[in-house]
Amino acid sequence: MADGAAIDELMVEVFIESYPCAPSEIVLDIDATDDPLHGHQEGRYFHGYYAEYCYLPLYIFCGEHLLCARLRPADKDPASGVLPELVRIVEQIRALWPEVRIIVARDSGFCRDEIMRYCEHNPNLDYVLGLAKNSR
Q1: Which residues pair with 30 in a beta bridge?
Q2: Strand partners, 27
Q3: CB 105 within 8 A of CB 128
Q4: How far is residue 86's CA from residue 68's CA, in Å, rounded to a whole number?
Q5: Is 125 helix (H, G, I), strand (E, B) or coil?
Q6: Helix residue spans in the chain (DSSP H)
Q7: With 90 as the cut, is the pLDDT of residue 2 above it?
Q8: Residue ranges of the alpha helices (H) in 18-134?
Q9: How far is CA 79 from the centre of its chain?
Q10: 27-57: per-residue pLDDT in tens?
Q11: How far is residue 96's CA from residue 49's CA, in Å, rounded to a whole number?
């Protein structure tokens, strides 16, 4: 059986080892997308934005490096589960690169108080998140 925690750690290790020395700045790009389903798989939900039955996997990239991949049902908020993954990745990066500036970037689907609060309370951790359009 696969050791999920070890795989998570390895994905970040491979990213870190791809650099000859610590960069001054990195951007963590958070995203969710649809994974269309055919048939009646467990966790199958209709997602209105994608207009299909799908899963809604979570991904965190830094450049071309995949740092996190989580398969999730489509009935969840896109930002669901982001904070623990972000904390895990940032802590692992900071262990070797304590001074690197980390920027968390994504669209309004990830603009949540808990994510912004985490970024605001950590030195050298900034964010660029979209805000959803509203009538105001």
Answers
A1: 60
A2: 103
A3: yes
A4: 9
A5: strand
A6: 4-17, 82-96, 113-120
A7: no
A8: 82-96, 113-120
A9: 8
A10: 999 999 889 998 888 888 998 888 999 999 9
A11: 39
Residue 15: which of 68, 54, 66 has the closest Cα?
66
Q: Which residue has the tokens 């269309």?
A: 36
Here the tokens at position 101 are: 């500036």
Q: What distance, in Å, lies between the first and last C-alpha atoms of the chain?
A: 52
pTM of the model: 0.90
User: From its phi and psi, is residue 29 left (phi > 0), alpha (psi between -120 and 50) or beta?
Assistant: beta
How is residue 35 written in tokens?
């994974």
Token output for 82: 């982001």
- Among candidates 114, 63, 108, which has minimal Cα distance to 86? 114
Q: How far is CA 76 from CA 58, 128, 133, in A?
A: 11, 22, 21
Q: In this structure, what are the phi and psi dihedrals at residue 115, rounded to the nearest 5 degrees? A: -70, -45
Are 31 and 57 in contact by the 8 Å Cβ rule? The answer is no
Q: How far apart are CA 46 and CA 68, in angstroms?
A: 24
* Residues counted in the chain: 136
